[in-house]
Fold:
Amino acid sequence: MSLFNVDLKRVVDDSYEIEIGYELINGLVDDLGTGLLGGAKKIAVITDSNVLPLYAKPIASKLAQAGFKVEMFVFPAGEKSKTRETKARIEDAMLEKGFRRDCGIIAVGGGVVTDLAGFVAGTYARGVPFVNFATTLLAAADASVGGKTAVDTPVATNLIGMFNQPRKVYIDIAAWKTLPLRQVRSGMAETVKHACLANADMFSFIEENLEDILSFRRFACEYIAENNCRIKYQVVMKDERESGLREILNLGHTVGRAIETVSDYRLLHGEALAVGMAAQALLSARLGYMSEEEAERVISLYQRLGLSTNVPDYIDREQLVRKLYTDKKVREGRLRFVLQKGIGDVVEFAPGVYAKPVEEELAREIIMEL
Amino acid sequence: MSLFNVDLKRVVDDSYEIEIGYELINGLVDDLGTGLLGGAKKIAVITDSNVLPLYAKPIASKLAQAGFKVEMFVFPAGEKSKTRETKARIEDAMLEKGFRRDCGIIAVGGGVVTDLAGFVAGTYARGVPFVNFATTLLAAADASVGGKTAVDTPVATNLIGMFNQPRKVYIDIAAWKTLPLRQVRSGMAETVKHACLANADMFSFIEENLEDILSFRRFACEYIAENNCRIKYQVVMKDERESGLREILNLGHTVGRAIETVSDYRLLHGEALAVGMAAQALLSARLGYMSEEEAERVISLYQRLGLSTNVPDYIDREQLVRKLYTDKKVREGRLRFVLQKGIGDVVEFAPGVYAKPVEEELAREIIMEL
Structure:
């Protein structure tokens, strides 16, 4: 018998910059010219059918003018495309076009695009560099920080994926105006979640400036984008691998993810999250972590955003309860919820533990009320 | 405009142990009991149809006796199973059986199993811990060190995958006796490659002890296993990401990988590699990096192992030349080869550069001779 010790301790630096601003395409092209993607000359622009004409084509065209070899890889817009099959089709198309490990990837779009493209980048030739050009409010709130990439499967959302950090993230606020209202509302669902878990002032700001946000006044959008990044960043910085603190970002997602899946993605992520946030608010109030009034403020803000906080009629609530068990936080067969502590904080049940075991019966009770 | 700097510089420790010995199943069960897989109680044993009765079932049964919840996930033996589709089927089965991020994975088998299972582990719930229980000579030579995991696609081998380090590797020499002769020969192809690129003494040892190796005399097997690990380890230690030095492990693989694909996997990896090693030996001699006699020694050792060094008749050599361009070492459309410098060393063309651009015409000429 003999033993070998393979010593792979080393310093890893995955640091990157998030740029928040207006009209960032030229800056992206400049950054690539100065080696942002490791000097890659061959660039895959991954996007969806909605974003293609608005942003992906202009980006591809400017990159081509700057001397890059650029190909676009487009899939149908929507969460339904976030699958292993779409990933495989993009990979096959990239292989077919001669992309090898010296290429780079630009994800142009919302969270579905950045989740999928970041996952493609992570496993293409065992990893090629990528940047995110985020065009939606939701991507600014959710997908821009943290390095989470994933696809959905028929059984569960986001369970197949990896941590993969981009080389840079661009949040182009100018793009928000091009979003359908439904997308904007969906993006605001994550923004309100951030306020609920970390920043009471931000919650008040949204309550007071709802009209300015929904009409894309610049000061309001910048405030939203910056605070979203700051909150997510502070959490992710402290805990890159979601073992403890990062779990707080899962606030509202226990029920939210389950509804999203059971609805077969008829609900957008943020629409499902609104119901999930209402569920956790009721649960938090029931368990004494926030007042009934605070729970009502949370639910009411979602409703003012035009988001329903009720389980849609077409959903079988018992099926929804069963689906809760596919949640990533489930341990040894028990449901676990992140819960709000008033507005602007979450409950830390034990040092570093933020997901509390909850009896199925109580979860069912809340779901039946919504 | 505002900028955020996401600071993700940190120390990562992916170190692990390789245990080489006889009958290691009990040791594996003990290690899991003391938290090797992060205390996971739910274990997925991933294996192929050949290894299932020989090792996977005994392992699963002993783990169950020790109190673990164990499920086996089995796919048909052979490189043809190393696909995204097999990966998806395993994932779906694991999701169906309720595996979540608190599970662990044991890969039991040869290189196909460890490549595939390591990739499954890397993207399941964004990464769960795994160990490799390597039952083949090839896995000992090739798959046990380095953390490379991957699947094949219709267009190219191993181009979709990731670096993912196991928590431990077991090389059970007792298992080699159960291998079909064809597998043993295939495994020896990588072993001889290691000797060619790094260790002239090992090359001589194999020449002199060929009978003892092929009849699994313990001293010979241990020598082979240990030296394979040592060579691969030294290379991988110095260069985990294959940017420079690690490329030398690609010796013989430019033509080898291409033949393997064009043969539609009728050839085992090692059988294809034997032809690839002959190709690079002739090329190295033609370019003056080794003598004709040394090239002959390499080719002759492969033949003594019972491996053909000729391109099979059923392969279209022009198609083979075209297929060379799917090689991962291709840069800006040019073929690149790692070349031997005598026996036991490789050519370093420039500091840290081991893959030399080679004209297609010269590559074609060599392929036509084989």
The domain at 17-178 of chain B is CATH 3.40.50.1970 (Rossmann fold). The two ends of chain B are 62 Å apart (CA to CA).
